[in-house]
């Protein structure tokens, strides 16, 4: 979070400098042309007057072209500094370095914000999906519940598939527990219409039902330990994708 704020401040500062330079150039150009026009008027009976005006303006334009800072050069330098900073300070969290809690297997692809974990349990196929771009908004820095990496709560879906149907749990975890927000029973292909009934409001279910749904997930390995792993997994994935994005944008701007 802090690195993005630093980059944003740098880019804003860069554009402010560019605007200041543009205003200075505009004023200087006006003054130069005005002076040339006055000289031309003073010598309007002389044949060299139009040439004086054209020469003055052309010379000043050349000085602007060769002397003004390069837009692409300044932006690419700022991006390169951010790339170097990110790579220098990147450390893979210990919580994810050893992989997911057994027996889950992790699947991910570079450039794709989807992360998936899978396992089998008896005759069921268990899958966990979470997206980097579909996470709760982090609190502001300094608010309670934010650790030093800025990681708070992770949102994910758990699907339990058997007999052509799947029980889908919408969950969140702060690393100390797993909270269920919604439960739906869906076809294997998912809900085919937004108007299909997807289940009741979970908090309105009887307390004993809520507890037993939580136990149902725990038996399949959806625990606080897994929630802690997912919190740091989503953070690490976002950091790695951010580094790649910076590098690609820097290459694009430099060309």
TrEMBL record:
<dbReference type="InterPro" id="IPR003428">
    <property type="entry name" value="MAM33"/>
</dbReference>
<protein>
    <recommendedName>
        <fullName>Mitochondrial glycoprotein</fullName>
    </recommendedName>
</protein>
<dbReference type="Pfam" id="PF02330">
    <property type="entry name" value="MAM33"/>
</dbReference>
<dbReference type="InterPro" id="IPR036561">
    <property type="entry name" value="MAM33_sf"/>
</dbReference>
